[in-house]
């Protein structure tokens, strides 16, 4: 007997991405996500365009990185000003809870992702099974908040104090040179690390957004219409 094939995390991401591309039809306006999983989606769209299996596609990228990738593949691009209604967006997530709420933005593109994915008729989220959590923040990894650079310590302290009961620690995100990470929009990101649940997510969302200095947060609540999960045992599709 041949030994069982062990799939890497990247293999699983690619499987989920290719499955999501099956939702695409010629003539669609597409939201193009950002990150390691979404990259596979954009690659596949470019391949299908070259093969003539998809035509008349218009992509709206959620980051400069995705824009560069799509242009290199010959995918026609536009923006929300020209196409305020998006047929379908496909993107990854950092966490998915049982109600299909998401944490996104650990790649730093949460604002543009939320703008594009909030304008779409259907938002397909693609993940490998390691991204499934019992509650948002449950992975122990970052819940990102995009803030203005002005007095960022003041804003970070305000964010940390909001969620003291959840054991929140707020940290400014740095780049590889240990300088503040700057988003495509010229802003900073404060990462929130939580030891306990946030409680009511809508209330948490509202109190974050009411803080002066906050641009947007990485909780995508009630936005995903479908989540495709790739695991060792195959593909699972979860719908709202």
Automatic annotation (TrEMBL):
Gene Ontology biological process terms from the UniProt entry: pentose-phosphate shunt, non-oxidative branch
Keywords in alphabetical order: Isomerase
Catalytic activity: aldehydo-D-ribose 5-phosphate = D-ribulose 5-phosphate
Signal peptide residues on this chain, from the entry's feature table: none
GO molecular function: ribose-5-phosphate isomerase activity
Keyword Transcription: no
InterPro entries xrefs: NagB/RpiA_transferase-like (IPR037171), Ribose-5P_isomerase (IPR050262), Ribose5P_isomerase_typA_subgr (IPR020672), Ribose5P_isomerase_type_A (IPR004788)
EC code: 5.3.1.6
Pathway(s) annotated for this protein in UniProt: Carbohydrate degradation; pentose phosphate pathway; D-ribose 5-phosphate from D-ribulose 5-phosphate (non-oxidative stage): step 1/1
Transferase among keywords: no
NCBIfam families associated with the record: PRK00702.1 (NF001924), rpiA (TIGR00021)
Entry's family note: Belongs to the ribose 5-phosphate isomerase family.
Protein name: ribose-5-phosphate isomerase
Organism of provenance: Hibiscus trionum
Lineage, broadest ranks: Eukaryota, Viridiplantae, Streptophyta, Embryophyta, Tracheophyta
């Amino acid at each position: 007997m041949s030994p069982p094939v062990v799939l890497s995390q990247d293999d699983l991401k690619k499987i989920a991405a290719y499955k999501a591309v099956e939702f695409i039809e010629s003539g669609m306006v597409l939201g193009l996500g950002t990150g390691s999983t979404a990259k596979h989606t954009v690659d596949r769209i470019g391949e299908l365009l070259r093969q003539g299996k998809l035509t008349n596609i218009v992509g709206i990228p959620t980051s400069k990185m995705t824009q560069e990738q799509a242009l290199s593949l010959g995918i026609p691009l536009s923006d929300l000003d020209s196409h305020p209604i998006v047929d379908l967006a496909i993107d990854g997530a950092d966490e998915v809870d049982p109600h299909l709420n998401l944490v996104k933005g650990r790649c730093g593109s949460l604002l543009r992702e939320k703008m594009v994915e909030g304008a779409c008729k259907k938002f397909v989220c693609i993940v490998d099974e390691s991204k499934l959590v019992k509650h948002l923040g449950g992975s122990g990894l970052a819940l990102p908040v995009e803030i203005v650079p002005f007095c960022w310590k003041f804003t970070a302290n305000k964010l940390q104090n909001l969620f003291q009961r959840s054991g929140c620690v707020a940290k400014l995100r740095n780049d590889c040179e240990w300088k503040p990470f700057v988003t495509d929009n010229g802003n900073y990101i404060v990462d929130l690390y939580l030891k306990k649940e946030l409680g009511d997510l809508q209330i948490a969302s509202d109190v974050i957004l009411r803080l002066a200095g906050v641009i947007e947060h990485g909780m995508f609540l009630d936005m995903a219409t479908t989540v495709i999960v790739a695991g060792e045992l195959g593909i699972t599709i979860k719908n709202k």
